[in-house]
Amino acid sequence: MIIKRMILPFIIVILALPLIFQCNVKKENNNISAKDINDIVAAYFAAVRAMDMEAWIATFADNAVSYDPVGAPPYKGHKRLRQLFQAINETFAEIEIREDNVFIAGNRAAVKWTCQGVGKNDRQVSFEGIDVFEINKDGKIQTIWAYWDPSVMLSALR
Question: What pTM was estimated for this model as a whole?
Fold first, then answer.
């Protein structure tokens, strides 16, 4: 009888744990599927490869924030994001960035990428990094954290 009294509360707690943890999930992002997240990340990288600013901007929410690279002042909103993309266009004559690995969890994706490019000065460069994307309920990039070392790229292009 004592064992039954101890086991029953334990079973109830075990069964209730998933419900408890669901309370912390952002409900507004429940409609974003892993496929939707993968598609927006793919569109982001495709726009960079094509050096297509408008397609790249279209992947972001109006009030998106980019920490590129992490530790530098953030780019907030489409106007500032355009400045970031313009800097890419001014630096590179050609750019090939590829998603090596994409890991999706909830409304976020972590992407290990590799980039090869040719600068406007005809120098070649290769560098890599990891971007973490947060996708909002509308299927747009809300926040991106870019982990990479710009000094590698800059020193190769000088």
Answer: 0.81
Whole-number Å distance between alpha carbons of 53 and 44? 10
Rounded to 5 degrees, what are φ and ψ at 112?
A: -85, 125
pLDDT of 2 above 90: no
What are the tokens at 51?
A: 């050096």
- Helices H / strands E in the chain, number of each: 5, 6
Question: DSSP characters for 1-15?
Answer: -HHHHHHHHHHHHHH
Tokens standing for residue 79: 């106007």
Structural domains of the chain ordered from first start: 28-157 (3.10.450.50)
Distance CA 119, CA 141 (A): 27
C-beta separation of 95 from 113 below 8 A = no
Dist. CA 21–CA 25, nearest whole Å: 7
Task: Give the span between the Cα atoms of 118 and 101, in whole angstroms.
Answer: 23
